[in-house]
Amino acid sequence: MSDILERLRTETRAAHDAIERDLAWETRVANRDDYRALLGRFWGLHAVLEPALAASLGDAAFFDPRRRLAHLVADLRFLGFDDAAIGALPRPQLALPRHRAEAFGALYVLEGSTLGGQVIAKHIGRQLGLTAEGGCRYYAAHGRETGAMWKAFRLSLAEEASHGKADVIVASATATFDAMRLWLCGEPSRSS
Ligand code: HEM
């Protein structure tokens, strides 16, 4: 494992545990209405973060396959929202990534969420009868490409960290976890 990944894992473990605990995801996806509300929160997050990530990374070939806003739109439409309802969803006020190193820290959190997301997608399939083609595109994320996408991300992450920006990446990842938890869970419990 690269040093940066080891550091990220160790130094954001408490933040991951906190979001996993506070999200109470099984409750949030227990029925279609609650699940749609959760997707609405994710929509606000991605609507704010993705343009900033794209601008800071300046690498469409790398970032575009990692965009998930359109997946959220597809799911929300499937679950009955029209474009006006989607556009009116609330968006969080976040400290946005200002350059590549901060973008890599934030993207570590979003890309890492596709790993646990595979478990959640299976559960949603069983619980709500939804699939990647109908209502569960966001959680399905990279699907069978999940392993390959994570491996490619880790390589780019290690390359970025080799420019001496590891501290910035870790700080940005921690801040992103905490901001996500506050936005998705709405409760100010500290992660560390
Ligand atoms: C929005 C909430 C979440 C975010 C942002 C998030 C983020 C992450 C990140 C960044 C990693 C990568 C860790 C690493 O290898 O360096 C990860 C891994 C993982 N997460 Fe989460 N996570 C979230 C929620 C959850 C939940 C609710 C579960 C429970 C099902 C979960 C289960 C996992 C598992 C099992 C892995 C490890 C997968 C593997 O190593 O193959 N996560 N998550």
Automatic annotation (TrEMBL):
<dbReference type="GO" id="GO:0004392">
    <property type="term" value="F:heme oxygenase (decyclizing) activity"/>
</dbReference>
<dbReference type="InterPro" id="IPR016084">
    <property type="entry name" value="Haem_Oase-like_multi-hlx"/>
</dbReference>
<dbReference type="GO" id="GO:0006788">
    <property type="term" value="P:heme oxidation"/>
</dbReference>
<protein>
    <recommendedName>
        <fullName>Biliverdin-producing heme oxygenase</fullName>
    </recommendedName>
</protein>
<dbReference type="InterPro" id="IPR016053">
    <property type="entry name" value="Haem_Oase-like"/>
</dbReference>
<dbReference type="Pfam" id="PF01126">
    <property type="entry name" value="Heme_oxygenase"/>
</dbReference>
